[in-house]
């Protein structure tokens, strides 16, 4: 199911109440969970977190029957409706679409499902076209207001207002980047200072910092329609590369940083691109080497040979004394590391055994998941009781909102707890990657005599140069190895 408006949410509560009663009154049925994507369209399944959680639970054998109000609640895309109906049938899961009286447990229902899905699809296209026309009109006259605000702002009375706590973070990001700090190090510092996050994010990421640095909103302007939605189903959000008209509106909101600081950041972004434009797509070391000071290394050409230099050192030598390192030296120490691992494969074998012993903690997780499922079902039922009481006028509006908010927060907390339990139950990713690394190394029959780019890209995550003459490789699974650089090739 998907829902958004107050009416839809009320309808959703009624649906949950209705199906809960059906299941409770049927001794052959047991309620496993309620799956609902609130506020999301059913035209695409990849953006529907709850829908995908339901499919995953079906794949793991936790469900064998799905009850839903109608085909349009399940999917408004014919291809997706048929695809998932067939997939779930293979898992032994049937779907009952009550409105259309379609039950996928019977093969004859597939044609009816296709016809109903096609009708729902056409309705979605018509609604989307009307909404698209309305948005385009508001972009043209400059009255368009995005549903979400950039980090550092909030909307009050249809105006952008600065959130000072977030604004300080934005200014620090710009100033740090212009001074030479790499995006990866900026992210690490943001995590250390526990900088506030938005939109439900739990960690800071480099692409978030990159988006902030390129966002013209921070100087009061707005480039509208950077992305657009395709005209046909399944709807896809695409980057606008000239397919649609863009609108640049100046002085649309209050600025957060100076124009000079913003332009300095753009110069550095464009300068870095220009400097390594011919080289960046050829080197496997791009965006992988980090200095002991925290800044990323970038390539530079010295006497017709490529070296890698710390960005901060390159920007201000007094702030970082790290010397440039030759690309050849890094390749050579990689070869040395691989040959050592090949010769002493027992190192990886021991690590695998130790992690396997630590992972003998799976027992009891299935019972914990079941207990959480019951709590979710209980709290969902409480929201229905609350909705019925509110309908009868027995609660003040503010009291209802507060109780509903608390119940929703508890349900979301339990769903997050359930996700973590499922992660523990599934095969540990670190162990699987370590086994993969061990297999790759053991299948390397002969010692390396030269740099192997394919092998490098397969097993290396990042490279750190923590101190002069030392290279630290972080491999898949998170395991790290240090190697000394050969004196004749190390630095200049």
Would you give an account of this structure?
The protein is of the alpha+beta class and 492 residues long. The protein folds into four domains: 2-131, Resolvase, N-terminal catalytic domain (Rossmann fold, 3-Layer(aba) Sandwich), CATH 3.40.50; 142-267, Hect, E3 ligase catalytic domain fold (Alpha-Beta Complex); 277-353 and 437-484, no CATH class; 361-427. It has 16 helices and 18 strands. It has helices at residues 6-24, 49-59, 71-74, 78-90, 109-140, 164-178, 183-192, 206-214, 259-275, 311-315, 327-343, 346-358, 365-391, 397-425, 429-442, 453-459, and strands spanning 2-3, 37-38, 65-68, 94-97, 102-103, 153-156, 159-162, 222-224, 227-229, 237-239, 247-249, 289-291, 297-302, 305-310, 325-326, 460-465, 470-475, 480-484. It has a four-stranded mixed beta sheet with strand order 12-16-17-18. Strand 1, helix 1 (6-24) and strand 2 form a beta-alpha-beta unit. Helix 12 packs antiparallel against helix 15 (429-442) and helix 13 runs antiparallel to helix 14.
| Structural class by sheet pairing and helices | alpha+beta
User: Using only CA atoms, what is the Rg?
Assistant: 28 Å
Q: Considering the protein shown, what is the CATH homologous superfamily of the largest domain?
A: Resolvase, N-terminal catalytic domain
Q: What is the CATH topology assignment of the largest domain?
A: Rossmann fold
For the secondary structure, the number of strands is: 18
The profile of the biggest β sheet is: 4 strands, mixed
Mean pLDDT: 78
- Global outline: globular
């Amino acid at each position: 199911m998907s829902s958004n408006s107050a009416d839809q949410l009320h309808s959703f509560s009624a649906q949950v109440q209705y199906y809960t009663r059906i299941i409770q009154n049927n001794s052959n049925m047991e309620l496993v969970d309620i799956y609902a994507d609130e506020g999301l369209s059913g035209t695409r399944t990849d953006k529907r977190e709850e829908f995908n959680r339901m499919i995953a639970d079906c794949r793991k054998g936790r469900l064998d029957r799905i009850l839903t109000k109608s085909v349009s609640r399940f999917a408004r895309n014919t291809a997706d409706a048929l695809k998932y109906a067939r997939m779930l049938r293979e898992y032994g899961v049937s779907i009952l679409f009550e409105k259309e009286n379609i039950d996928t447990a019977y093969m004859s229902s597939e044609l009816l499902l296709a016809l109903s899905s096609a009708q729902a699809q056409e309705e979605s296209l018509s609604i989307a076209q009307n909404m698209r026309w309305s948005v385009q009109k508001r972009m043209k006259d400059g009255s368009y207001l995005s549903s979400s605000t950039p980090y550092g702002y909030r909307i009050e009375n249809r105006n952008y207002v600065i959130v000072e706590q977030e604004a300080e973070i934005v200014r620090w990001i710009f100033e740090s980047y212009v001074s030479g700090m790499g995006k990866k190090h900026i992210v690490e510092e943001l995590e250390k200072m526990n900088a506030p996050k938005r939109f439900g994010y739990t960690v800071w990421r480099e692409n978030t910092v990159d988006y902030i640095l390129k966002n013209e909103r921070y100087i009061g302007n707005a480039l509208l329609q950077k992305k657009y939605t395709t005209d046909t189903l399944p709807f896809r959000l695409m980057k606008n590369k000239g397919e649609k008209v863009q609108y640049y509106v100046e002085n649309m909101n209050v600025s957060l940083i100076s124009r000079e600081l913003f332009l300095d950041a753009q110069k550095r972004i464009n300068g870095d691109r220009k400097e390594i434009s011919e080289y960046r797509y050829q080197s496997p070391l791009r965006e992988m080497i980090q200095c002991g000071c925290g800044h990323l290394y970038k390539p530079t050409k010295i006497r017709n040979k490529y070296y890698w230099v710390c960005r901060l050192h390159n920007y201000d030598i007094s702030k970082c004394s790290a010397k440039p390192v030759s690309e050849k030296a890094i390749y050579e120490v990689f070869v040395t590391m691989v040959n050592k691992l090949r010769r002493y494969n027992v190192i990886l074998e021991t690590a695998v055994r130790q992690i396997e012993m630590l992972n003998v903690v799976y027992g009891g997780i299935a019972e914990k998941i079941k207990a959480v499922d019951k709590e979710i079902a209980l709290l969902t039922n409480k929201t229905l009781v609350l909705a019925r009481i509110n309908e009868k006028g027995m609660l003040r509006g503010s009291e209802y909102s507060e109780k509903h908010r608390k119940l929703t927060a508890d349900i979301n907390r339990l769903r997050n707890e359930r996700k973590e339990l499922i992660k523990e139950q599934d095969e540990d990713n670190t162990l699987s990657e370590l086994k993969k690394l061990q297999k790759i190394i053991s299948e390397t029959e002969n010692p390396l005599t030269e740099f192997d780019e394919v092998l490098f890209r397969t097993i290396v995550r990042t490279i750190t140069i923590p101190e002069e003459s030392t290279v630290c490789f972080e491999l898949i699974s998170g395991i790290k190895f240090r190697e000394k650089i050969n004196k004749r090739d190390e630095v200049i």
